[in-house]
Design brief:
With about 150 residues, the protein is mostly beta strands. Helix content is about 15%, strand content about 40%.
């Protein structure tokens, strides 16, 4: 009888320990913590583009255009937040269910979390890819330099 109780306790405790090791994956409507924050990209003449990512929403404001917001409960697919990570490309999309890429100002080629050394400090950046161009949104810092590169 003691052996049966011991086996039952061992099975339950191993099941609990085994279940806690498995990492939970984020749903398509939740953005991972490492990506959240406010990012800036310099456009010249003292103006910055702004990219803000939170748990269930994201928005981008480019130049003098109106801010474009993605939320989880938007009726339009162009405005619906749907996070998708493509590990083979090392890129992620915040509006992965959109059919017509021109309906959204978010980078059509996806985005990537990277690091950039500016001066003597390293900053987290979100690198956006569009056509043959990539540009960096710097986390939490307005830097007066355009970090844009042509890929060809």
């Amino acid at each position: 009888m003691k052996l049966v109780k011991l086996l039952a306790v061992a099975t339950v405790s191993l099941g609990v320990v085994g279940a806690s090791v498995v990492p939970a994956s984020a749903s398509a409507t939740t953005v991972p913590k490492k990506l959240r924050g406010t990012y800036y990209a310099y456009q010249g003449y003292n103006s910055w583009d702004k990219l803000k990512i939170s748990k269930h929403s994201a928005y981008i404001k480019i130049g003098s255009d109106k801010a474009f917001k993605l939320t989880t409960k938007a009726k339009s697919k162009a405005h619906r937040l749907s996070y998708k990570n493509y590990k083979s490309m090392h890129r992620f999309f915040l509006n992965s269910k959109i059919k017509v890429l021109a309906d959204s100002p978010f980078p059509a080629g996806g985005m990537q979390l990277a690091s950039r050394k500016i001066g003597k400090k390293h900053y987290k950046v979100i690198r956006g890819y569009q056509s043959a161009t990539k540009w960096d949104f710097i986390k939490g810092k307005k830097v007066k330099h355009i970090y844009r590169t042509h890929l060809n």
